[in-house]
Structure formats: C-alpha cells, structure tokens
C-alpha cells in the first residue's frame, strides 16, 4: 500500500492511532508501518496516538482547534484564541487555550502549544457553540 492509497483511505488531516491501525489491519505488524511513516516524515506525531499528514501530503490545512479537542479532552477551545479568531481583540494569538474539567495542563507539540485550564463542570452547558467548517467541527 503506497502513501496515495493511505491518503485516500484517511479523509481527514487529523487522525488517531486507531484510524491508522484500521488502515493497516492487513499488515502483520501495523506498529512497524506507522513507525516507518514517522521516520520518513510522511506523518507527524502531534501527541501519542494523534497524527497529522506532513505538509507535502495534505489536501488542506489541519485544524488546530480540532487537535486541541483531541489532545486533552473533553475540552472547549476558549479564551484569547477564540477572541482573536472573532476579531474581538486585535492581538494575534498563537497558542490554543482551552477549558476543561480536568487538571490544568500544557502541551508543547510540533504544531504549536496547547494550554488547558480547569473550570467547574457547571460552566459547560452555558455559552458553548459547536463551530463547523466544511471539514471539521470543534
């Protein structure tokens, strides 16, 4: 199976280990094939079990917002990042900030820094909007 075949089977730029395992289910050792793809820089490991295609093999830009939800969840992209996206603040915000009911955590990845801060569970039902574009929802 070549990279174009793999690319056609995975219709997203953001994917997880299970997706890759399903693609390589016919292989005797799927982990070895995944390791080979990482060594050849065909895919990039964002965090253990979460990957994106290398720029050369992408059909579109990956979604940092979706990655934020996948890296540490359940979480909600919030704070400065969304304020910047909506043009409410003039600053360009690079780090993704999300709220979660879990403990505060930060992840420095090859695609950026993802910061998570803890909020009480009763904050979640109010003010959450699911944002959809033509490729992903977050």
Structure, described:
This protein has helices at residues 3-9, 17-23, 30-39, 64-71, 79-85, and strands at 14-16, 43-47, 50-53, 75-77, 96-100, 105-109, 112-118. With 138 residues, the protein is an alpha+beta fold. The strands form two sheets. It has a four-stranded mixed beta sheet. A three-stranded antiparallel beta sheet has the order 1-3-2. A hairpin with a 2-residue loop joins strand 2 and strand 3 (50-53). The longest helix is centred in the first third of the chain and has 10 residues, at 30-39. It starts with a helix and ends in a 20-residue tail after the last strand. The mean pLDDT is 88.
In round numbers, the mean pLDDT is: 88
Strands of the widest sheet, in order across it, are 4-5-7-6
Question: Would you tell me the structural class of the helices and strands?
Answer: alpha+beta
- Number of helical regions: 5
The rough form would be described as elongated
Helix percent band: 25-40%
* Share of residues in strands: 15-25%
Point out poorly predicted stretches.
none
Q: Could you outline the blueprint of secondary structure elements for this entry?
A:
Elements: H1 3-9, E1 14-16, H2 17-23, H3 30-39, E2 43-47, E3 50-53, H4 64-71, E4 75-77, H5 79-85, E5 96-100, E6 105-109, E7 112-118
Parallel strand pairs: 5-7
Antiparallel strand pairs: 1-3, 2-3, 4-5, 6-7
